[in-house]
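Key idea: predict the complex, not the pieces.
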Amino acid sequence: MTDDEAARARALDAAEELFYARGVQAVGMDAVRNASGLSLKRLYQLFPSKEALVLQFLRRRDERWRQALARHVDTRTSPDERLLAVFDWLHAWFREPGFRGCAFINSFGELGGVSADVAEQARHHKQAFRDYLADLVAASGLPSDLADQFLLLAEGAITTAAITGTAVPAVHARTAALALLRAQARNHRADPAVGPR
Amino acid sequence: MTDDEAARARALDAAEELFYARGVQAVGMDAVRNASGLSLKRLYQLFPSKEALVLQFLRRRDERWRQALARHVDTRTSPDERLLAVFDWLHAWFREPGFRGCAFINSFGELGGVSADVAEQARHHKQAFRDYLADLVAASGLPSDLADQFLLLAEGAITTAAITGTAVPAVHARTAALALLRAQARNHRADPAVGPR
DNA sequence: AGCGAAGGAGAACGACCGTTCTCAACTGGG
DNA sequence: CCCAGTTGAGAACGGTCGTTCTCCTTCGCT
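Result:
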């Protein structure tokens, strides 16, 4: 039934907003009820438990986050520009109102020690992000070690931006990424496709 | 009274182990009571509330964490080696049993949206860490931008190590830091004091 | 029109949590 | 030896949370 689909979407919209803003445990099912406009009965017939709702929230957020990133990266054509576009997208994300870091890092910190499923979701998300970076790095003809280094810059920028409440870490990450890219090009590649900024 | 001091230490020891391993909200005061061997009455006469206990736990962990880092860095003499020693220390930290990332990032994710004091503690800790890196970078005669970049590498390594459960992010971070350091030296400095690895 | 299934609003329930209280055991000073 | 004060063990209290239940309305179908 497509009606269930719509209700599911509304429930997940409300859950995402609340869980991300306040943390999972600080949000009761009553708050999800109020924010979604769904009754508790309907909520529990769509999701068997709060934990199931949390896991679905994480799954959907993972997909949407990576799609949004890929969409932005796909506006660039040169391999090196595509790589750097990751950090531009992070910068835009950090500036969004209500930005409070990575939902997976936050959920892992809150529940990773107590829920194996949440920890698994966080691992999956970060693994997928790393794989995506590895593809971009490979398309630039760079060694895969750079993917791990870019991953660290991105992750560090996310948490630093969240805690300090500013978007500048994205700029620092981009600068560092560019320096690493150039250093690598100087050592092992013909010509960097990206000139000095 | 020195008796209170000892009891405080035991309470904080228990709280730190439990909060760090399972998250703050998943640990009740009863668990702290059992783990510390203190009675609830004593606990509440030492700390007026759970929130006070949480904040003290964070304060003490901040101090100890930075002291441990500084102690390790102080085993090195050359400025560049001291800078890289940060990542060696991270590597050792990541390998400790029960490592579960940065207590401040975790607490920020769990409570930062709901407790201004916890958010403030996280900000303070990260600011102090950045200041420390800035000192090391300045001692190496490097521009302060590098401090921000090293901070991102370190933060990224911490969360990536926590979520993936391995210590290798420290190695990647160190490699990236070394590359950034050399690139900077090539541009603006006389001679890097650190040869090829 | 009448009936049965479904849904909404919210009360109810059992569990748990932070905090306080009870009460008995223990302490040290007169 | 006794008593006032402190402490420990854990029961008790008020509140909240996840989940279920009740009761009433609504709605589609014949």
